[in-house]
TrEMBL record:
Entry-linked Pfam families: Aconitase
Organism: Oceanispirochaeta crateris
Highest rank taxon of the organism: Bacteria
Note on how the cofactor is bound: Binds 1 [4Fe-4S] cluster per subunit.
InterPro entries from the UniProt entry: Acnase/IPM_dHydase_lsu_aba_1/3 (IPR015931), Acoase/IPM_deHydtase_lsu_aba (IPR001030), Aconitase_4Fe-4S_BS (IPR018136), Aconitase_4Fe-4S_dom (IPR036008), HAcnase/IPMdehydase_lsu_prok (IPR011826), Homoacnase/IPMdehydase_lsu (IPR006251), IPM_dehydratase_rel_enz (IPR050067), IPMI_cat (IPR033941)
UniProt keyword 4Fe-4S present: yes
Domain Aconitase/3-isopropylmalate dehydratase large subunit alpha/beta/alpha: 7-418
Protein name: 3-isopropylmalate dehydratase large subunit
Recorded catalytic activity of this chain's protein: (2R,3S)-3-isopropylmalate = (2S)-2-isopropylmalate
Keywords from the named record: 4Fe-4S, Amino-acid biosynthesis, Branched-chain amino acid biosynthesis, Iron, Iron-sulfur, Leucine biosynthesis, Lyase, Metal-binding
Lineage: Bacteria, Pseudomonadati, Spirochaetota, Spirochaetia, Spirochaetales
Length: 428
């Protein structure tokens, strides 16, 4: 019987299997941010175990609320800052260099095919876009990971979702993943790895693959995973060129992280997205999906472009294309948080920031901020936001607020009209 990518990664990292179906794995990366890591740090300190397994393999960032907005968030930042200095963690991104964890860590080349990655954050699944096994974990696992560089997992059962066809104008990776979650439901992949395959995924850029893998957890998935290919090699090339003689050699090496044709999946789902229309969520669960056409004219108070799902340069390019020469409706507040400083700089260089500012969009520094209703665009009771983020839970962006998840193109078009709008209206 052949093996899936996840099974191959497990085999290569297995330390032991203390009982049937449980694997203790060596970790290549432990990622940290200031919301969950300080709890682990404080506990380690109180137990006299203020150590890290390998400062090179730990990468840390202050991203959720930055600059600090109050004493609590200032304290969280301080704990991270002091810990990174004390433990010699060189890859620590603090104010001025910081961005959303799942955008900045891939951008720095920290994730490679075949890696095992954990973080105390549910959207760690994003990094599976590189053909890595990347999972969000709780504080206890994070603590063990920081101290010993291992983590235990159940046998990785995989679901394969094969996406074929071609996307219509105005339909993006975000629409595809929302559609998939709408199909399989918020528990459709609970405790499973979702392996995304097929010609549509093959044509996707790394950014688009990250958007897809990012939301695997919204269907209950432990991890999303894509097969590494030349797109992966091209993205990583500047970080790996000293390790390989050529891109072909890198690809050959990374090809070991591909599922065998006779690998076992708990389910295989075939989806043709040729007829897919732009979609958005309604209600408070990410599997509540309607087409933008069905939602058209739903009024919004705010639009938000940003987050680890859709705050990358390609997202900003698409939004700017829609907003070029247009104005944000006077009834709407438009907030945009580029996900990292490099994305911000690139957007500035390409003239996108000017387009946004001319349209009346408020730009914030790179941060999670409004995505989880912590800062920079919190909703008031009863307000509605069209957002490029990944969670529409009740009150997510502010108590009593409602979130409609959608693509950056749809959010930008919605900003112009003040109600949910298909971006195709504004093309060309
Ligand atoms: C703060 C953090 C624990 C949380 C998560 O795990 O996802 C956050 O990033 C979110 O998106 O709600
Ligand atoms: S951008 Fe949003 S979803 Fe992503 S890590 Fe930050 S808070 Fe979580």
């Amino acid at each position: 019987m052949g093996k899936t990518i996840a099974e191959k990664i497990f085999d290569a990292h297995k330390v032991e299997s203390p009982e049937e179906g449980i694997f203790v794995l060596n970790l290549d990366r432990v990622f940290c941010h200031e919301i969950t890591t300080p709890i682990a740090i404080n506990d380690l300190v109180s137990r006299g175990k203020d150590r890290v397994f390998d400062p090179e393999k730990i990468k840390a960032v202050i991203d959720h609320v930055t600059p600090a907005k109050d004493s609590k968030t200032a304290e969280q930042g301080k704990i991270m800052r002091d810990w990174a200095a004390r433990q010699g963690i060189k890859d620590f991104f603090d104010i001025g260099q910081n961005g959303v964890c799942h955008a900045i860590f891939p951008e720095k080349g920290f994730v490679r095919p075949g890696y095992t990655v954990i973080m105390g954050d549910s959207h760690t699944c994003t990094h599976g876009a590189f053909g890595a096994f990347a999972a969000g974990v709780g504080t206890t696992d994070l603590e063990v990971g920081i101290l010993k560089g291992v983590c235990s997992f159940k046998t990785p059962e995989s679901i394969r979702i094969n996406v074929s066809g071609s996307l219509k104008q105005g339909v993006y990776a975000k629409d595809v993943i929302l559609y998939i979650i709408g199909k399989i439901g918020v528990n459709g992949a609970t405790n499973k790895v979702i392996e995304f395959t097929g010609p549509v995924i093959d044509r996707f850029s790394m950014e688009e693959r990250m958007t897809i893998c990012n939301m695997a957890v919204e269907a209950g998935g432990t991890c999303g995973i894509c097969t590494p290919d030349m797109t992966t090699v091209n993205y990583l090339w500047k970080f790996i060129e000293d390790d390989f003689d050529s891109k072909e050699a890198a690809l050959k090496d990374y090809s070991q992280w591909a599922s065998d044709s006779d690998a076992h999946y708990s389910d295989v789902i075939e989806l043709d997205v040729t007829d897919l229309e732009p979609v958005a969520t309604f209600g408070y669960k990410p599997d509540q999906i309607k087409t933008i056409a069905e939602m058209e004219k739903t009024p919004v108070d705010q639009i938000y472009i940003g987050s680890c799902t859709n705050g990358r340069i390609e997202d900003l390019r698409v939004a700017a294309e829609v907003l070029r020469g247009k104005k944000v409706s006077p009834n709407v507040r438009a907030v945009l948080s580029p996900a990292t400083p490099d994305i911000y700089k690139e957007a500035l260089k390409e003239g996108l920031i000017e387009i946004f500012m001319d349209a009346g969009v408020c730009l914030t520094n790179p941060t999670c901020g409004a995505c989880l209703g912590m800062s920079n665009g919190v909703l008031a009771d009863g307000e509605v936001c069209a957002s490029t983020t990944n969670r529409n839970f009740n009150g997510r962006m502010g108590k009593g607020g409602t979130v409609h998840l959608m693509s950056p193109a749809s959010a930008a078009a919605t900003a112009i009209n003040g109600y949910i709008t298909n971006s195709a209206l504004y093309k060309g």
